[in-house]
Every structure is written in structure tokens, then in C-alpha cells.
Amino acid sequence: MKKLLIVVDMQNDFVTGVLGTSEAQAIVSDVAMYIKNFQGKIIFTRDTHNDNYLNTQEGKKLPVTHCIEGSEGWEIIPELRPLAEGKDIFDKPTFGSLALADYLKENQFSEIQLCGVCTGICVISNAVLAKAAQPDTPIKVLSSLCACVTPDSHKIALEAMKTCHIDVIN
Questions:
Q1: CA-CA 20 to 30 A from 62: which of 32, 74, 96, 121?
Q2: Smallest Cα–Cα separation from 123: which of 92, 87, 147?
Q3: pLDDT tens, 71-92?
């Protein structure tokens, strides 16, 4: 069996756009290098909303229009776009991807790694779904290749994942 890397939501709106952070910008080159050197299957997720986003439950709690399907903010960041070509991309209307979880139930891996943004929202959601889909597979979050809204929220999310028996590695 082979390893899987899930690159979570490395999209313009989360890196340099309306919800971008200096923390997210700081990991871009390291994420690109890791992807280039990864030996295994690579999957990307993409936060995907439509024009009625502000009327959704998420939009009411986070009233910042972002990742509208087809917009520049929705696109994978330019530094990673060539690395995403030909790879599976799971568009997800919410934090975690049920389609990705279904894929993981049907395809076994020897190890699943995750990196990307936002550690405390989408990374943690997809890590927990991966753990549910493959409970006996090591799930590893690459802490130095993840970013959250603040360094504190990043650390809190990493601790929460450890509680769920998800390995946090540098």
C-alpha cells in the first residue's frame, strides 16, 4: 500500500485573499517543496461556495464571502496550481469532505498525511474524517505545513487532533 497526502484548501482566499494570513503565506514554499518530494498519492481539497454563501449556516457565522466557485479566490494558489494538475481535487461545500471520506473508505493507504489551511477548521475536520474512514491507518498532520487564523488557534487545533489519536509531526 502507498501513502496519501491531502493538501487542504491551499486557495487564494485563504492565503493572500479575504481570509489570508501571514501564517498561511509563510508555509507556501515549504508545502510546495513537500509536495514535489512526496512519494505517494496526492489529493487536494478546495473549499467551494456559491453566490448564496451569506445565507448559509456557515455564512451567517463567518460573514466573509470567500471561495466562490469559479472565482480567483477559489483557485488553488499559483505556487501549487501546477502541482495540482492531474491530481484528484475534492470540492467541498463545508469544512470536511464527505466525498473524500467515502473515497478513503474505498481505498486503503498505509499512511495518510495532511497539510494546509486552516488548521482549526478544515484541516482538523478532514483529519477526523480520515480517522473515521480508516481507523487503523496512521493519520499524520504536518504541523509546520499547516496554518490557522492565529498561532494560538493552530496550537489548540493540533492538541485537539492529538486527543483524537491523530499524530502531529513537524
A1: 32
A2: 147
A3: 999 999 999 999 999 999 999 9
